Amino acid sequence: MAQGRIVKALSGFYYVENEDGIFQCRGRGNFRNRNITPLVGDNVHFEAENRTDGYVLEVFERKNELNRPPISNVDQAILVFSTEEPSFSSLLLDRFLVHVEAHDIEPIICLSKIDLLEENQKQIQAFEDDYRQLKYEVVSTSIFVEETIEKLRPYLQNKISVFAGQSGVGKSSLLNALRPELNIETAPISKSLGRGKHTTRHVELIPIDEGGYVADTPGFSALDFEGIEAEELTLFFPEMRKHINDCKFRGCTHVNEPKCVVREKVTSGEITSYRYEHYLQFFEEIKSQKRRY
Q1: What's the CATH number of domain 230-292, 3.30.499.10, 1.20.120.340, 3.40.120.10, 1.10.40.50?
Q2: Which CATH class for the 2-61 domain?
């Protein structure tokens, strides 16, 4: 048996890479019986008589996995958010941050299309400052400014990075700027809808010159909070997490409990009000999901 990593999954085939190249494989039938679906990023045992006729036999234990996009063993998520076209959304960014932190994936915030910034420049800079104060890495990029692309490269070195974000923010364009020979399909923003089309239709790990891989993933505009309990949501907001033992009541949800330190910090401005409002919205959304089930 050989070992390798699944670098692409498409139309029922798994493309497994090792030092001998890439092998097209199918999954063994017993995966279905064991409720296992091989994912891009999985380290596997496989056997193949030739490059196009192989079988994945065993999936090794994963350090993490995501459902949307379906990928495993990710080191970091490059969360791509455009400053314009479509407009920057801190609500959607915070939703992504909660999602990746809940899966123990390091987030890197990548602001794209900074060449389009005009009257909103000060507002975007304020957001940058807020997230940097929370110890998030923030990189501002434009595919038309080579030095901004060069600033992104060191973050990718020897990592498995997933590029994620809503449709039209420029994920595929950034990958094309990093590796022009990829020539990944891109599409313009819909003027009527204010969002992009889904140009990426499958998940694929792409090797880069810096070592490691990046994954271009299908764009999407919403994430649910499946697997996250309302009571643990505070763990994925670092400015709240550091006060986890400071409130009067143990297990404080920071919603309406008396002598809540987090709410005091919001009032004083130490915790930004928009981040707290997002927390409350996510908290209620998780509670509503639980009630439905």
Answers
A1: 1.10.40.50
A2: mainly beta
